[in-house]
Write a structure and sequence with these properties.
221 residues, alpha/beta, 9 strands, single chain, hydrolase, hydrolase activity, KANL3/Tex30_Abhydrolase, Alpha/beta family hydrolase, 9-stranded mixed β-sheet, globular, 6 helices
Length: 221
């Protein structure tokens, strides 16, 4: 069951009932004819207001990519703590039919915990590719607790966008694999860069949007 409303910015907000509760999709349609749909969800500590998600939603529609910002049921319900990974997967599976209705190849994406969800479910759901923003390779300070198997098991073309100073896994810590990795210099887990860094916060967001745009352009080439 879905329900759509229009915001003043003409973005469509759609509520989707899943087995984990009510999820919400905020649509940012492509300008002109769309060729891809990028669906991205948030992490365990924030929502779709994350700087990288908002930057992608603002930039990609001009390049023929519709963007769906997905809020997991726990966020829609106003809870502060994310549920277990299996429950996150249930929520993601539940919104997939609403994505497929657009009739476009769907790139499954997310940041942090959302990136893990996208990797775990990509093959099962038939995703065209995976965009993993700030993939949490391991808990901070615990490199022995690696989640590399989730990333390596995605089974579809995958782009990892990782901050150079991410405590959940710096780019150099990532294992060899068939995925691509884009580094955001100086960025932390939220892609925030220090004020004294050699690039500004806006520059960091441009690294992300330009890199994802180029990668997405090659997916259907």
């Amino acid at each position: 069951m879905t329900h759509e409303t229009q915001t003043p910015q003409s973005e469509a907000t759609q509520l989707v009932e899943t087995d984990a509760g009510t999820a919400r999709i905020t649509w940012h349609p492509a300008h002109g004819k769309a060729r891809l749909l990028l669906a991205v969800s948030h992490g365990a500590g924030g929502g779709i207001e994350a700087r990288d998600l908002q930057a992608l939603a603002a930039a990609l529609p001009a390049h023929g990519v519709s963007v769906a910002l997905v809020e997991q049921p726990w966020r829609v319900a106003g809870k502060k703590l994310a549920p277990a990974p299996k429950t996150l997967d249930v929520g993601w599976r539940g919104i997939w039919p609403a994505l497929e209705k657009k009739g476009l190849p769907v790139v499954s994406g997310g940041r942090s915990a959302g990136a893990r969800v996208a990797c775990r479910t990509a093959t099962e759901l038939g995703a065209a590719a995976v965009l993993a923003l700030s993939f949490p390779l391991h808990p901070p300070g615990k490199p022995e607790k690696s989640r590399a198997d989730e990333l390596l098991g995605a089974g579809v073309p995958t782009l990892v966008v990782q901050g150079g100073n991410d405590p959940f896994g710096k780019p150099a810590e990532f294992p060899e694999g068939t995925y691509e990795l884009l580094e955001v210099p100086f960025g932390d887990h939220g892609f925030k860069v220090p004020k004294k860094a050699e690039l500004s916060q806006d520059d960091a967001m441009t690294v992300i949007t330009d890199g994802v745009t180029q990668w997405a352009g090659m997916l259907d080439a």
